[in-house]
Amino acid sequence: MSTQQRQPEGGLLQSRGWAVFQEAAGVRVAVVAERTQPIFCHVLTLPIVGRYLYVPRGVPQISEHLPQLRALAARYDCAWIRLEPLEKHWDVQEGVHSPHDMQPRCVLQMDLTPDKDALLAQMKSKTRYNIRLAQKKGVEVSVYRHGEPGADEALAAFVTLIAATAQRKGVVFHPRTYYEQMFAHVAHESGTDIMLYVARYDGVVVAANLVTVCGDVATYLHGATSDAHRSVMAPFLLQWRQITDAKKRGCRWYDFGGVFGDNSDTGKAGITRFKKGFAPHVAPLCLPGAYDVVCVPWRYRLYRVLERAKRAWRTLRT
Questions:
Q1: Is a pLDDT exceeding 60 seen at residue 226?
Q2: How far, in Å, CA of 57 to CA of 288, rounded?
Q3: Which is it for the CA torsion 310, 316, 317, 318, positive or negative?
Q4: Whole-prediction pTM value?
Q5: Sheet bearing 78-83, strands edge to edge
Q6: CA-based end-to-end distance of the chain
Q7: Domain boundaries, the chain
Q8: What pLDDT band is residue 51 in, cutting at 50, 70 and 90?
Q9: Helix segments in the chain, DSSP class H
Q10: CA 159, CA 161: separation in Å to the nearest integer?
Q11: Architecture of 8-103+288-317 per CATH?
Q12: Residues 194, 180: contact at Cβ < 8 Å?
């Protein structure tokens, strides 16, 4: 099975559609114009230490492109280059592990080759039960694309659920405009697509997910669930509809996004347990994580000192 087939998100983060979205969301996007495929980079800025160059994952054999990336970093006065290699053994000795990953290291991908009955049969029995329970309870699923009737209202409901979920779990999510720009721009003539799936119970939106397609991979990218009507198990039916729709359009893989280890916090453990219920026998696809290639040593050292101070401060506050 090739690296290209098993890329997280199908290479979405290196697609032209994703680059267009990032620019619309206010990120400066710089491009290394390679012959086969352009490499999209983000010029990001931190207080005190200034700019660094982030190369989102999706570039095979990224070490081969380091001379061009170093030149680009110099042009934008970036102190380091943050890479996300696809290969476990990548050939850059000067790269150091980043203090944190930009994307989850491990994702769960379901092979959509088997028929629907086989896909259901491989799930945990509780997951199958919850899918059927949601159907029995009358949960209804709708799908929207940007510009279609009802899409604006559905996106507003999704953002409301995102905000409520963030408050409930004490975490920070992207602002409303981020999701609006994503929904408006990821669908692109280069081959990327994005859909908003909404589950309603008694006419009320109780769960909603953003799903992308890039190449032959459909990806569950963002989701939110209401604290009300949890007993109707809407998120299970929503995922099943997304899986079957991806299979119908010819996708080979369904990517559930990030999964986490046994030592994760309660929230991440719950997310992982939910996702693995659909593909309990599938080993996650794990990548090396983020590495930093240093261009301006003193600024990078300052960055690491500030990062350690920030973590210490958070520890003292908890």
A1: yes
A2: 11
A3: positive
A4: 0.93
A5: 28-32, 39-46, 50-54, 78-83, 291-294, 95-97
A6: 45
A7: 8-103+288-317, 106-285
A8: very high
A9: 16-24, 66-75, 116-121, 125-137, 151-169, 176-185, 234-248, 266-276, 297-317
A10: 5
A11: 3-Layer(aba) Sandwich (3.40)
A12: no
67 alpha-carbon distance from chain centroid: 28
Which of these, 39, 47, 42, lies nearest to 65 by C-alpha position?
A: 39
Distance CA 195, CA 155 (A): 10
CB contact at 8 A, 104 and 258: yes
CATH number corresponding to 106-285: 3.40.630.30
Cα 193 to Cα 183: distance, rounded to the nearest angstrom: 9
Amino acid 126 reads: K
Joined tokens for residue 160: 């409301």
d(C-alpha 210, C-alpha 194), whole Å? 7
- Provide mean pLDDT across the span 181-203: 96
Same CATH fold assignment for domains 8-103+288-317 and 106-285: yes
In the block, residue with structure tokens 């088997």: 114
CA atoms within 13 A on the CB side of 310: 9
Distance in angstroms (rounded) separating the CA atoms of residues 219 and 194: 9
